[in-house]
Design a protein that fits this description.
With about 450 residues, the protein is of the alpha+beta class. It has 14 helices and 21 strands. The protein has an 8-stranded antiparallel β-sheet with strand order 2-1-12-11-10-9-8-7, sandwiched between helices. An 8-stranded antiparallel beta barrel has the order 14-15-16-17-18-19-20-21. A 3-stranded mixed β-sheet has the order 5-4-13, with no helix packed on it. α1 runs antiparallel to α12 and α2 crosses α6. It is globular and about 55 Å long.
Length: about 450
């Protein structure tokens, strides 16, 4: 596959999804192919290139997990040890859970912690201050019972790194993985970002117009408590180097068996677009018979995707600076690259026809600490709407991304167990996202999974 074909596809896709600036990289056959299109900013435009910095959001978690696994390989941390061995100051609403959560529970999202603390406005903005407030975070399940994606869990993992190394999280990650991996264009600090070429994030409003996103990350400058879960900025060139690191270039930094262990299933995921299982941080997914590992990220108007196919020494990186369609752009890039470089084809499953009784059964409001998810039916179709809780948006001192308006949802055929409780979103900015409904022992729908997160049901629509 030629460089020209990649560049042609990237340009067409960026225009189709209305993204001002994108950067894409592919590692295939030992060669790197990079294509960038558009500009860093509509107001102050510079061409996007292979070193343009984008906010990575949750792709940062792969760096946090790798740094922690280096401490494991060095015998300084044990995966099965309770987190309190390393963070004795940890306090949760449930004391028994606080004592039982292990390091691995954090790394594979099985700690039972809700998604995150919202709008933590400690003056020092430190990771220690973030962890000190975890007693106010809801628990959605006992430790080890089920997977539910948690930003807070990864921030807590970052505190383990701080306490074990005696360094700030940022300095420790730099010493443990960024410097050994040769990543000279990857940064946490905005001071480092602002003196280099960087992409400005944009969000598309209800009127269809793009407006620049503030703050540049998801939280105001100086708020370090969320850095382990989503604070890095990087470029396509550095992320391709990061992929090479995980494909085997880590020799001398991490033992090969440690890297391989991160790719092995540790917790099952059901009906998730993100994957079939969690490894250690990585989402593990089989596509057209080929095993992949990957992680995506979203910030304020910026989206990142990293997908690796170890058996083919293949990787694709995609970065986009507009929401909500940056997610769909990145997804289209990953699928195109898999098909055109490896002959691997991914297709969305087809939903079954609308069933009014089933739609009415699931209609209602579902919540996590930060967001409301509303399922509604008008008798002809089922729709899903998800957004930040109004009271949180109103109280926030920083701008937040827009909500996702109602989009059509379809049930999928039974999964072999005959329950048919899986679904797929068929339009809008979350098109293609899959999930499932959770029932209690009586068979009542009590929750819905979206993007790896469990939203608990609070009201039903009669």
């Amino acid at each position: 596959m030629s460089q020209e074909k990649l560049a042609e596809f990237v340009e067409v896709a960026a225009k189709e999804f209305g993204i001002p600036g994108v950067a894409v990289g592919v590692l295939a056959g030992g060669r790197e192919f990079v294509a960038a299109h558009g500009v860093t900013s509509l107001d102050n435009p510079l061409p996007v290139d292979d070193r343009t910095l984008f906010h990575l959001g949750s792709v940062t978690k792969t760096f946090t997990a790798t740094a922690l696994m280096r401490l494991v390989a060095e015998g300084k941390v044990e995966l099965d040890a309770p987190v309190r061995r390393y963070v004795p100051e940890l306090t949760l609403a449930d004391e028994a859970a606080a004592a039982r959560i292990t390091v691995l529970n954090l790394l594979n999202h099985t700690a039972g912690l809700d998604w995150n603390l919202i709008d933590v406005e400690e003056e020092d903005g430190s990771l220690a201050a973030f962890v000190a407030q975890l007693a106010g975070l809801a628990l959605i399940a006992p430790p080890g019972v089920r997977a539910s994606y948690s930003q807070a869990g990864y921030n807590l993992a970052g505190r383990i790194i701080e306490n074990v190394t005696g360094l700030s999280y940022e300095k420790a990650v730099s010493a443990l993985v960024l410097e050994p991996a040769g990543l000279s264009n990857t940064f946490f600090e905005l001071d480092d970002v602002m003196v280099r070429r960087f992409a400005v994030g944009y969000n598309r409003g209800e009127d269809g117009m793009l407006r620049f996103a503030r703050p540049w990350k998801s939280r105001r400058a100086g708020m370090r408590g969320n850095n382990p879960g989503g604070g890095l900025a990087s470029s396509v060139s550095d992320l391709l180097a990061w992929a090479r690191f995980h494909l085997g270039a880590a020799e001398g930094v991490l033992p090969a068996e440690t890297l391989r262990s991160m790719r092995e299933p540790t917790a099952e995921l059901r009906a998730s677009t993100l994957g079939d299982a969690f490894g250690i941080c990585w989402f593990l997914r089989e596509v057209d018979g080929v095993r992949t590992i990957g992680h995506g990220g979203s910030g304020n108007g910026q989206f990142a995707e990293l997908l690796i196919v170890p058996e083919h020494d293949f990787a694709v990186v995609s970065l986009a600076n507009a929401g909500p369609d940056g997610y769909r752009f990145n997804e289209s890039v990953a699928r195109w690259a898999l098909e055109h470089y490896l002959g691997v084809v991914e297709r969305d499953p087809e939903p079954i026809p609308y069933d009014r009784a089933r739609a009415e059964e699931v209609a209602g409001r579902y919540e996590i600490d930060a967001m409301n998810l509303d399922l509604a039916t008008d008798g002809t179709r089922l729709t899903l709407e998800v957004g930040i809780k109004p009271e949180i948006r109103q109280a926030s001192e920083t701008e937040m991304p827009p909500d996702y308006p109602p989009a059509a949802v379809g049930f999928l055929p039974g999964d072999g167990n005959g329950d048919g409780d899986e679904y797929i979103i068929t339009e809008g900015g979350l098109k293609g996202q899959r999930g499932f409904f959770t029932r209690d022992d009586s068979g009542t729908v009590v929750g819905v999974d979206l993007a790896g997160r469990l939203f608990g049901r609070t009201t039903a629509t009669s």
